[in-house]
């Protein structure tokens, strides 16, 4: 095997394939990057039986072949090579990488023992890449990081009526975003529970590709999802289990809400929260014309600030964890934010707050992105 390829093209391809490599592979082989060259194309892949990444680029091939080499090491090398064409060759059991005055010799891994990288030939539907990347950024931060309950460590994909809805929860909050979906294989309603880390990587990878093609495969033998954009493909096994019915937690109508400038509220939360201890909550008192933020920290440290607010309905007092609130505010991607209040059977205990975006102070709220946050019990 021997080929020559542009340095920047090679570096990007190796970096992409290495991103989804496991931190602690169950087998040494699964830390490898598979390099295959034939018919003028260089393909670099990674696979750990659960997720795979595959990209194909153009290269000047002198001798076709395939080789397996440490993915992370190759990625580190590729990102630091001088700006010159890269020549890669297999000599006996060593992979030689030459670029300008730099030369590396890496041990080849037993490629014949490497598992077959998944190939997906079908397409279920397509979404605008920019919308997909934005939706992933808005929703994925709400996915649980607690592996004790794997089913909520994923992002739920639901396809229906020319729309794709992404949903994530960690029990304390629920984030959901609806985007346009072009159905390409018949129009059936589908759902898929995808590991959040894969969704996040797919959102970043395909942000500039124009369109992302999505394949959801449930054929009995395997259940997986594939994302394809340009010359790159990411696949992942689906998480097994029933996703909690969090959609029913969203209220149908809210007639008690406050509208504020998003950046003003974000800055105020950041300032007042400086005196809080870890995991403590901020107290928000909403009245006509303003919301008052109050924090009581350790050793009598306190902070108070007011922000202009337009209140519709009754005055309300809620306590919210500042980081969870900031995540929701920043995810609105809007100049104005609406915080809607719900109630529980206990009049002294407020229900979850619903965060949505507004284009202006007096406009209707936009429902494509919704963020439901459970308030802390009021500090007394």
Relevant terms:
DNA Polymerase III, Chain A, domain 2, elongated, 12-stranded antiparallel sheet, 380 residues, 26 strands, alpha+beta
Folded structure, characterized:
By secondary structure, the protein is an alpha+beta fold. It has 3 domains: 2-113, DNA Polymerase III, subunit A, domain 2 (DNA Polymerase III, Chain A, domain 2), CATH 3.10.150.10; 125-248, DNA Polymerase III, subunit A, domain 2 (DNA Polymerase III, Chain A, domain 2, Roll); 250-373, Roll (DNA Polymerase III, Chain A, domain 2). It has helices at 7-19, 71-79, 129-140, 196-205, 262-272, 322-331, and strands at 2-5, 32-38, 41-47, 51-58, 60-63, 65-70, 86-91, 94-99, 102-107, 125-128, 154-160, 163-169, 173-180, 182-183, 190-195, 211-218, 223-229, 232-237, 257-261, 282-287, 289-296, 302-312, 316-320, 336-343, 350-358, 365-373. The strands form 3 sheets. A 12-stranded antiparallel beta sheet has the order 15-11-12-13-26-25-24-19-22-21-20-23. Helix 5 runs antiparallel to helix 6 (322-331). The longest helix has 13 residues, at 7-19. The model has no long low-confidence stretch (mean pLDDT 93).
């Amino acid at each position: 095997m021997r080929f020559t390829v542009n340095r920047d093209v090679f570096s990007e391809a190796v970096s992409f394939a290495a991103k989804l490599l496991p931190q602690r592979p169950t087998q040494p082989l699964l830390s490898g990057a598979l390099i295959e060259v034939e018919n003028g194309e260089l393909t670099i892949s990674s696979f750990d039986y659960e997720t795979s990444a595959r990209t194909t680029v153009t290269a000047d091939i002198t001798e076709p072949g395939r080789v397996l080499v440490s993915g992370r090491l190759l990625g580190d090398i590729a990102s630091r090579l001088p700006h010159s064409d890269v020549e890669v060759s297999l000599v006996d059991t060593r992979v030689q990488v030459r670029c300008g005055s730099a030369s590396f010799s890496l041990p080849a891994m037993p490629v014949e023992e490497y598992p077959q990288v998944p190939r997906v030939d079908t397409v279920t539907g397509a979404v605008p890449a920019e919308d997909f990347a934005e939706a992933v950024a808005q929703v994925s931060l709400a996915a649980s990081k607690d592996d004790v309950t794997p089913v909520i460590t994923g992002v739920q994909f639901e396809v229906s009526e020319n729309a794709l809805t992404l949903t994530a929860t960690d029990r304390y909050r629920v984030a959901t975003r609806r985007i346009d979906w072009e159905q390409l294989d018949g129009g059936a309603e589908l759902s898929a529970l995808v590991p959040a880390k894969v969704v996040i990587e797919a959102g970043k990878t395909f942000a500039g590709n124009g369109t992302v093609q999505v394949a959801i495969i449930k054929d009995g033998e395997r259940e997986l999802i594939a994302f394809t954009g340009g010359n790159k493909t990411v696949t992942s096994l689906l998480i097994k289990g029933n996703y909690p019915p969090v959609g029913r937690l969203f209220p149908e109508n809210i007639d008690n809400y406050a509208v504020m400038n998003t950046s003003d509220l974000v800055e105020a939360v950041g300032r007042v929260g400086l005196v809080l201890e870890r995991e403590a909550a901020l107290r928000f008192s909403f009245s006509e014309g303003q919301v008052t933020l109050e924090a009581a920290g350790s050793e009598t440290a306190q902070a108070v600030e007011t922000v202009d607010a337009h209140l519709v309905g009754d005055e309300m007092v809620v306590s919210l964890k500042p980081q969870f609130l900031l995540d929701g505010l920043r995810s609105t991607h809007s100049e104005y934010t609406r915080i809607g209040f719900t109630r529980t059977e206990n009049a002294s205990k407020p229900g979850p707050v619903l965060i949505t975006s507004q284009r202006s102070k007096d406009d209707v709220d936009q429902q494509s992105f919704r963020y439901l946050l459970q308030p802390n019990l009021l500090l007394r």
